[in-house]
Design brief:
The chain is mainly alpha-helical and about 80 residues long. The chain is built from 1 helix and 2 strands. The protein has one domain.
Length: about 80
Amino acid sequence: MGYKYGLLLSTKKVLKQECLMANRMLTALALLLLFLCASAVAQADPGIRDTLRIDSVQTDAGIQTVVDVSFYNNETLCGRVSSV
């Protein structure tokens, strides 16, 4: 009976190792598919440069000033369309 128990224990160890290996392989496959799908969905910029301009201002300390910031983007930002 002790031999059967020892055999059963080693069989459990083998099954556990096989499950761990299967989990690692499935995880690697999932990461590979995620990477491939993400790179396939990624789009190239159509060639129009996105632009951000910040004007410079010289002022003295303690005086409130306004700094103009303008930007141009050829794609929608956060689902909102903004015009400058």
